[in-house]
């Protein structure tokens, strides 16, 4: 089995290294990731400048572009052999509910799926910088891959996996969930730069609004790994007939 591994936290991210080490036991892994942190880059491609791919001392490859660039380059000519699967992560922080609209981690998986490969995005739901249980997320991914080898994904499905920031023995199990959604984001944070000019930081995401039973938010809150099947057909199918009648 061959796996293309990427992320949005950058090629030097701890979560990427932990997941690569775990996957090495299951597959031949090629790591191609952004050369720096590109969190919240969403599904953006670099079209106005050339991109470089540089091999790192640990054998990983750094791309001077977005998370989507890394997967796109790898799968459209750079890799000598095509992988069997694309995996993105381990992201430092949650990708729950409407986080997926902004997530560079999900963009890696989405690009892999768009180009015809099974894809997984995995995130560690950590709220502070005290300790990160990346090994728990890596264990969850390894378990899921073993299951997928027996029961492959639907051709249009991406798995979005979120893992509580807990030791593996404290995680209660797995739950298949739907996406919840958040309250409106918190207010911007105003500040002043070194020249005395006013600057603004994007505020933190809102808390879960639709976070009840069956959602990814609820699974994490109760100590379970959340597995959400995601399909990126943005058509509002329920509105088609009504809009067709209205437009005539």
Write the layout of secondary structure elements.
Elements: E1 2-6, H1 14-23, E2 28-34, E3 53-55, E4 61-63, H2 67-78, E5 85-92, H3 104-114, E6 119-125, H4 134-150, E7 158-164, E8 173-176, E9 181-182, E10 189-192, E11 198-201, E12 208-210, H5 216-221, E13 224-230, H6 240-247
Parallel strand pairs: 1-2, 1-5, 2-4, 5-6, 6-7, 8-13
Antiparallel strand pairs: 3-4, 7-13, 9-12, 10-11
The best one-word shape is: globular
State the distance separating the first and last CA atoms.
Answer: 53 Å
Unreliable runs? none
Sheet with the most strands?
9 strands, mixed
Q: What's the CATH C level?
A: Alpha Beta
- SS elements, strand count: 13
Keywords:
248 residues, Stationary-phase Survival Protein Sure Homolog, Chain: A, 26% helix, 13 strands, alpha/beta, 6 helices, 9-stranded mixed β-sheet, two-stranded antiparallel sheet
């Amino acid at each position: 089995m061959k796996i293309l591994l990427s992320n949005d936290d950058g090629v030097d991210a701890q979560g990427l290294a932990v997941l690569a080490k775990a996957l090495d036991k299951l597959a031949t892994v090629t790591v191609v990731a952004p050369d720096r942190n590109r969190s919240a880059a969403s599904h953006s491609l670099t079209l106005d400048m050339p991109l470089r791919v540089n091999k790192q001392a640990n054998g990983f490859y750094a791309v001077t572009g977005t998370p989507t660039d890394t997967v796109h380059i790898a799968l459209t000519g750079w890799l000598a052999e095509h992988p069997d699967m694309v995996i993105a992560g381990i992201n430092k922080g949650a990708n729950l509910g409407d986080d997926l609209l902004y997530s560079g981690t999900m963009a890696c998986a989405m690009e892999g799926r768009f180009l015809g490969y099974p894809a997984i995005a995995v995130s560690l739901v950590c709220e502070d910088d005290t300790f990160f249980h990346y090994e728990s997320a890596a264990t969850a991914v390894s378990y899921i891959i073993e299951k997928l080898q027996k029961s492959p994904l639907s051709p249009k499905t991406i798995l979005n996996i979120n893992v509580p920031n807990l030791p593996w023995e404290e995680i209660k199990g797995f739950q298949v969930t739907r996406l919840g959604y958040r309250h409106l984001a918190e207010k911007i944070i105003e500040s002043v730069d070194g020249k005395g000019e006013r600057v603004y930081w994007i505020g933190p995401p809102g808390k879960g609004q639709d976070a009840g039973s069956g959602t990814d938010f609820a699974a994490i809150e109760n100590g379970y790994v959340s597995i959400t099947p995601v399909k990126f057909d943005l058509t509002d199918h329920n509105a088609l007939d009504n809009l067709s009648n209205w437009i005539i």
